[in-house]
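job 3f2a | input accepted
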Amino acid sequence: MTRIDPCKRFKTALPRIQKPARYLGGENGSIVKDTADIRIALCFPDLYEIAMANNAMRILYAGLNSISGVACERVFSVGLDYEALLRSSATPLYGLETGTPISDFDILAFTMGYELAASNLLTVLDLSGIPIRSSERGEDSPVIIAGGPAISNPVPYSNILDAVWIGEAENAFFDLVTDLASLKRAGCDKAGILERIMKEAAIWTPTKKAVRHVFSGFSNDHYEYVFPTPIVKPIQDHGVVEIMRGCPNGCRFCHAGYFYRPRRLRSVERILEDVETQIRVAGHREISLSSLSSGDYPGIASLVSLLNKKWSYEGVSFQLPSLKVESFPIEIIEDISGTRKSGLTFAIETPLETWQLALNKKASLEKIRLILKEAQSRGYRVAKFYFMLGLPLPDLGIDEDEAIIALIRDIAASTPELKLNITLATFVPKPHTPFQWHSQLPVDDAASRIYAIKSAFRGNQRVKISYHAPYLSWLEGVVARGDERVGELIISAFEHGARFDAWDDLFRKDAWESAIAAAFPELATLVSERQVDDDLPWSSVSLRVSKKYLLKERELSMTARLTPVCTDDCLSPCGACSDTALIEDDSEIIEILNALLQEEATAHSDVATQPANTRYIPADGTRYRLMFKYKKLGRAAFFAHHEIQSMISSSMERAGLYLAFSQGFNPMPRLEISEPLSLGFESSDEYGVALLIENPLGPIDAIIPSINKFLHGELQIQEARILACPDGARFPSLSSVHWGSRFTIDLIETGLEASSFLAFFGELKDKEPRLADASCEAHDRCIDLLLPFTGTRELGLSALFESAFGVPIRESRVSVMRVIQFAKNRAVGMSTYFDRYTDY
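job 3f2a | predicted structure (840 res):
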């Protein structure tokens, strides 16, 4: 089996690639299985930093790799620069764990989080050397399967995918893969694998209907956290603990609310366990209590209070990412206004009460004012609101944009110290919802309403208006509601250059316009109104919610009437839980939380023993610093300076060291690492200093292996010391005592001669006094260079190399190793950091 090592293959090119660490793999926590019965490439079709923040990826990666005989590797979309590099070098896309080409896997599985990832899915196939159309793939191609909420209408993928999984993966999909591994072990071919896949009720193909799979064990099943520690910082860099799946509210526009029905509550015991795992194993200090409406978890205020009592002393903070105004408990603001104030976020959707009732939700202005005034008093300075334009609403004689403007002005006037971030989006009538028959607002109409709202607040420094591009929302509707013809449209758009269609800065409207003109001129019919008797493209998929129920909800919306929330005494059965008892008892959870809170209060009844946030260094007393030496070789040479700093601080925390944090709005670990090197330069002599809140217990040599266990295999700490700083004394920064470095420069693969550099450097040294202490020697085709740090780019290694050889160092195949760094020394001019740092 051929394996691709991008560091060797692209040694010269990688430094010119944006964030090359995206493509190198080898992260701590990666699971590498050299042998397996069945190999699965798991893909979230977006960039690394987006994909590594996706909770479905975490669940699938851990679940699949827990199965005996199954190896699951990650593959993501690549940036345009890396795509060009792969194509120009005829290098296929590969799995991050082993570098195995994707075409060599048995299954390529996509998890689709949003519709506009469609062209990225095709890019992954094409870069892997896998034919895009299923009819063109043979026995040697992987089985191509997809799942996720954005593919509940799988019809546009009829000619692309071999199968689509409808619903949640746990645990039925894992059971399916277990069977597939057994079949493969017994010698089953691709046709046999597909035959077994087709037997699943949750599998859809153009010739087979599907029924959504619902995970009945969500409340109490144990989750094993097994996921690589990201190198490139994810777009949402915090832990995720899912506290509720599904939503009790039944908002009529919300596709996710219907896709994840019925509401299921994670047990308190499992939530506490999951939080501890996110802190102790994953190393997070910011935890999101995730659900479609976190404020509707029974006893949510008690839950957050309990978590704060347990973890605030370690500087851990908790977020509630999705809050419903009417169910928002005011008292919770105190518990989520601690370490990090990331802002309160409310999805208002529409401003008038009658319109809100039509959507089956309520967000009264009075309650909004009450929440924001309390938040303002607690130190919050930002509140975020989401509105949708083009919803099917009763006619009240006022335009949407005018009503939104009036509401924003009212909120701004009642909370003068808060900044308001307003996000506007065009409503997309999604499949499987009561609004699936409605038309979508035309692009020009949506744009005019958005611009009217923006114009109303132009020059207002307290109100920031952002919006989703109307054309992208329109395109999202086309993909979400399309038929087989949309599949050909997606292929055509991809062939015209469409990539990253959800990214405003990368979206190519010209590619889609060309595709529409060539393949689908009558496209507008897909976003127009449908009749209730129409045979909708997605009618072969059942989300377990009956058409009768959807039509009833549609009728109630027209008269602005509410449907009761989804609870254990359901008054409006929709069919989602008709075959199993999935609705938990709210009162039992509230009783458990109250009992745990009482236990916590009893345990800390003595005020002197109350836990407090101790992640800040006290004003008086001895301070402790951990000084360490580390190496970064191979792939680690392509990690950016801030990526290394983040990895080291996280690994120390996970190893049980308590790093001090800065104070302010967004506390950061008090950690410094030594002078950065250019990407691609290796080093065996790097240094860092971490400020600790206490002297660690036990010998430091015993702590180093614990830290290294959580670091990348090619980024390892070699030596460490504890430095005590008496009260009032101060250590200098590493950068302030940096004297210079000794480098080894290997020219063997470049064809360049060391003598050229020696001659150039000798002449320069005679003329440049700042290089008086520098030295340069050559051994065969290797240069040994002692170079003081002058703070001048022209006298840095890269500039000297280019001046000597006439070629940029990044365009040569040179290997550079920093073998030692020197610190300034009062007595002898320079010394090693460990030898002389404490002299200061």
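job 3f2a | The first strand starts at residue 38 and ends at 44.
job 3f2a | closed
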